[in-house]
Structures are given as structure tokens and as C-alpha cells.
């Protein structure tokens, strides 16, 4: 990642100076923070949610230097994608389906919501962030995981008011299901519509029986629901690993930066299941 950061820095220098350098590469004042320091600063902010002002005091620099360093490295971390157990990196939902079809992986899919600041009064789309489930202003993102709880993909970031199935359909999941008929998905009750349209590929919890049915029917429903939940639970573990990072417990920054932050955290978390052996849960 260091060469990419250096290339971006050189590009910014050429842009500021009209496309040509007045000094040889390496001349001039060195950067205040080295690349390793900038990486530590970014990870500390994402993991602990420390304010930029507090990190600046620790490193003995100005707050704007910390803000600039995080703004430069966060997109680099987000562009890395998620590391699969086989070693490849997945960047999109299409990559996840291709990987699942090749490796025979049953994908666990679920959505999670992150609290964000409420838009100012008078702005258009202010109600789009109000979650019908949490009754708070949130942004929703979709997470895909394998049977071990390893994060395969994190995306389809939408305002909290949007339904889970709608967000997945906008991402093109129905087309991917048709292109990869061997891929199987395990989802929760929020994807009942997707399971109804693709019953051979998408497995959702069974619907609750209506009142008045025999007791045996309720027992069968509870048994089937528990069995499906036990198979789907690894994606909940993956989401929990993301929420360990303080910045995703409640995002207080600009809402347009949240998708980039989510992808950065997901890529870092997935590194634990990349070239390393998977731990049993």
C-alpha cells in the first residue's frame, strides 16, 4: 500500500505545480508523518474512535495533519477489498458469487444499521435515514460471510429507511442468482421476498403459523427456525467483528464518508481469515 500512497502524493505535487516538477523527486521538506505513522493514526481512529485533536497531541502535530493523513489512507484501505480464505480479494457482490460458485461456499447474507447524525432541517431526503426498525437515523450496509464467519464482502450501503431486500436488489443480486444457479444463500426474515422469488437458492426462516393451528405445527416451526438460524449465525459473528471498531458503533462524521469507512474496516477484519488458517467457532 505504501507505493500507492507515494504515487498519489507525486500526482498531487504535479497537479499543484501545473503538471511539471520544479525540484527533483525527494527534494524539499519531508512529510511531517511517515507512511507508517499515517497508517497507525488511521487505524487508531478507526479502532478506538479517537478524535483527531487527541491523536494530534500524541504525535505532536497539528490537527489538520491528522485529518489529512486519515483522509489519504482511508480510501486506500477501503479499495483493498475483503480477503477470502483462499487468498483472493473480493471487491464486489459479483466477485462473491463467482467465488462461492467456484469453491462451493454457501453465502450468509445479512444487513446491519449504523447510527449517523440527523440531517439538518429543511434538507431534502431528511426522512430517508429514519430506520423503521430502530426509530433512529441510520445507514444500512449488507454483509456477506461464509460458514466460518469470515467477511467476504461489505457494501450496498443505503439510507436506513430502505428495506434489506430492496438494497440487495439494487445491488443486482437477482441477476447474480440467475447467472450462478449453484450458489446458495442463507438469509434472515428480512429477505422473505427474495426467498419467495428464488426458493431453490435462497433459504429464509419459515413463516410463523397462524393462530389456531395444532401445537405440533408450532413445534415444527420452532425447530425449523432454530435449525436455519444455527446455520446462518456466522454472518452475525462477522457483523459483530465490524462493530468492535468504535467508529462503526455510532458514526459521528460526515455521512458520505461512512461507506468508505465501512469498506476499510471490512477489509482489515477480513485479513484475519485470508492467508491464515480459519479459527473454529
UniProtKB/TrEMBL annotation:
Residues 109-267 form the DDE Tnp4 domain. Keywords: Metal-binding. Pfam families: DDE_Tnp_4, HTH_Tnp_4. Its cofactor is a divalent metal cation. One of its GO terms (molecular function) is metal ion binding. Transmembrane segments: none annotated. Residues 33-82 form the Transposase Helix-turn-helix domain. InterPro entries: HARBI1_dom (IPR027806), Transposase_HTH_dom (IPR027805). This is Transposase. It comes from Couchioplanes caeruleus subsp. caeruleus.
Amino acid at each position: 500500500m505504501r507505493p500507492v500512497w507515494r504515487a498519489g502524493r507525486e500526482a498531487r505535487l504535479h497537479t499543484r505545480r501545473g503538471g511539471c516538477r520544479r525540484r527533483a523527486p525527494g527534494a524539499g521538506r519531508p512529510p511531517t508523518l511517515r507512511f507508517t505513522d499515517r497508517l497507525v493514526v488511521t487505524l487508531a481512529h478507526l479502532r478506538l474512535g479517537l478524535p483527531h485533536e487527541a491523536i494530534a497531541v500524541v504525535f505532536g502535530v497539528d490537527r489538520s495533519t491528522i485529518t489529512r493523513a486519515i483522509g489519504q489512507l482511508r480510501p486506500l484501505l477501503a479499495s483493498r477489498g475483503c480477503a477470502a480464505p483462499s487468498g483472493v480479494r473480493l471487491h464486489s457482490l459479483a466477485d462473491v458469487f463467482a467465488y462461492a460458485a467456484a469453491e462451493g461456499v454457501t453465502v450468509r447474507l445479512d444487513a446491519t444499521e449504523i447510527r449517523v447524525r440527523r440531517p439538518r432541517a429543511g434538507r431534502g431526503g431528511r426522512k430517508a435515514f429514519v430506520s423503521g426498525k430502530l426509530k433512529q437515523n441510520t445507514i444500512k450496509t449488507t454483509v456477506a460471510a461464509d460458514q466460518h464467519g469470515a467477511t467476504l464482502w461489505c457494501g450496498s450501503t443505503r439510507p436506513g429507511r430502505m428495506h434489506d431486500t430492496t438494497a440487495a436488489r439494487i445491488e443486482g443480486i437477482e441477476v447474480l442468482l440467475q447467472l450462478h444457479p449453484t450458489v446458495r444463500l442463507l438469509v434472515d426474515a428480512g429477505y422473505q421476498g427474495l426467498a419467495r422469488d428464488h426458493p431453490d437458492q435462497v433459504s429464509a426462516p419459515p413463516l410463523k403459523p397462524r393462530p389456531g393451528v395444532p401445537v405440533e405445527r408450532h413445534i415444527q416451526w420452532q425447530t425449523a427456525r432454530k435449525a436455519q438460524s444455527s446455520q446462518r449465525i456466522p454472518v452475525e459473528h462477522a457483523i459483530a467483528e465490524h462493530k468492535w471498531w468504535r467508529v462503526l458503533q455510532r458514526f459521528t462524521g460526515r455521512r458520505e464518508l461512512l461507506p468508505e469507512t465501512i469498506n476499510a474496516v471490512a477489509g482489515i477484519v477480513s485479513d484475519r481469515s485470508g492467508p491464515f488458517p480459519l479459527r473454529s467457532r
